[in-house]
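re: ur question from yesterday

yeah so i grabbed the chain u mentioned. its 190 aa long if i counted rite. heres the sequnce exactly as i have it in my notes:
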Amino acid sequence: MSIYKRKLTEKTLNFYPPDKECFACYDTGLVSNSDGLINNLYWSKYDIDENGKRFAGSDLSIICHCKKSYQQLDDAQNVINSGYRDSFGNIKTVQTINGEQALGISLSKDQTREIHNQRKQKWKETVETMNKYRIKNNKNKTKELPYFIETVKENLNNIESLFSFPTEKATVDSMKSNKSDNLSSKKPAL
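ran it thru and got these structure tokens back, copy pasting raw so excuse formatting
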């Protein structure tokens, strides 16, 4: 058996949510906005660029309040994660060429807790939906997918074009063409 194959005893019909303590940051210390919850609840323009498009990383990171945002030590008292907050709960700062800069910003504890609770509830609903479909599909020969998986599946029908990059020759030809266009458009001064 290959090392990447799951054992038959490990295979179940059950769908499981992520095994995380904090659903606001998914145990990273940085609150995620991948589902747009920050935009919907608190800051409508967070990680939105000047053109109105979502652009992750364009704004300061949001530091969580869970234990993953603090320094973590192993059994020998060695630092395994320096964390984003000091022991008083303040966001740490770093010295840059422009002066002292905070590592991020913060929502209130209650706001962070609200994000955690809403995401935890959504995962609970997803587990129920997925398990219902899995049980139903196990009994039937025709397989049905939840609407959200069908939507992604339809969007990925053109996966070939998603990763179709120009060949090196096409890139060079394009560069030569642009260069010759630029040279021909310049007229000598009289």
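noticed a couple things. DSSP finds five helices and four strands in the chain. also Residues 48 and 88 are 31 Å apart (CA to CA).
anyway ttyl
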